[in-house]
Amino acid sequence: MDLTRREFVASVVGAGAALGVVGCGVADSRAPVGSTRVSSVAPRSSTGIVRRLTLRAQPITLDLAGTDVQTWGFGDSVPGAPFRATAGDRVVVDFRNDLPEATSVHWHGLAIRNDMDGVPGVTTPEAPPGGTFTFDFVVPEPGTHWFHPHHGMQLDHGLYAPFIIDDPADPGNYDAEWILMLDDWTDGIGPSPMEIMDRLIADGESGSGMGGMGGMGRMGGMDAGDVEYPMYLINGRAPSDPKTLAARPGDRVLLRIINASADTVFDVALDSHDLTVTHTDGFPVQPVTSSALRIGMGERYDAVVTLSDGVFALIAAPVGKRGMGRALVRTGSGSAPGEAIRPRELDASPLTVGALRAADSARLPQREPDSVQDVLLSGSMAPYAWTINGHTYDDTVPLTIREGDAGRLHIRNMSMMSHPLHVHGHTFQLGPAGGSGPRKDTVLLPPMGRVSVDLAATNPGSWMVHCHNAYHADAGMMTRLDYAA
Ligand SMILES: [Cu+2]
Hints:
One of its GO terms (molecular function) is oxidoreductase activity. The protein is mainly β.
């Protein structure tokens, strides 16, 4: 829904009055309603369009192959309905929290103004139960993004949804576009996320921590995450009741793949097809064709595929764990492939971030860094604690940067677990030094892996830098990037 400026002003006055009457705890002195402040991230061009969206976090019932499970979601579905805007739009989100605990919404991948970033205690007040908050920001860059709570283990419920920012300069030319949200699922069919976290901590104290949830499903010493899940979902559907995506033979389809899981890296493949990766984390790359791709928590990959005639399994295989996330692609008649069918495309080495190079339009200006900082990722299962530069978040020493500087981070994974490292409010370009790798906001570091990234300090504030494994983050694997005064 697009509003003219006059209609927008009229409607925010109404919203402001309602906030005043409710008197909920979130309407603090920074109340953004009607604010005239603009984002410090200049959009390439402002559209002048205001998109008004409503969002409600609430308890909902999710049908998993005929079994009703109680969970939390955005709106009335898992994933929540996609948000859509065009780069340069101003987005106003009337958010209401109908959960029984406080929450806040983080707009993952959007380099927006700091006070809208949705991190309680750092950028944005939390919304208490029954509370409301109005988010108001300009969306700076096109791409495949998403949103989720930045609050304890809430992400490991059903609280996630796509946020697609269209590029007015991109004609698309796709016959169809499918958003695929991948998730590891336990809520209502296994222990709750809080119970899992308590168990990880208890196992760590007793010294039996290497098993996570009992060590089920670990294969060949691979890093299998810390948690074994009873089910893996694509677009909120169980593998035995998959979503069917319909198209015609020969159609050229854009897949927007988002890993919304808490503890699971996936390998994604479409049976009998190759995938041509065109973007990661919203930014274009030099296209690379592969039979499968590996996606860490928080990452996004866009891939184009030209469809054959038939019915094909689209599989998200959890790395190092049992089970599969599953959807079906149907372009012709015929029976669906059996649930156990595993595409041979998954047998090849999946495409990983190291194979990607930024498109010219996504490169940061080449310059020598003004500052170089280390980001050491470490931790253990016993005790269950995860650290950045040797500290858990409660006594972290933040990274620092000055506005306008070019910063380089040497990120090193000193552990035998993989960690997707996410930087808020910024995007970075992967090295080698000077940057030819892809532009991203989340980078998956395999066990003992290392990468150097460059970022431009153009968005002042105090920003989270953290592992996107929800259990690692909650166990301390977070720090901040603070702008020097
Ligand atoms: Cu981690």
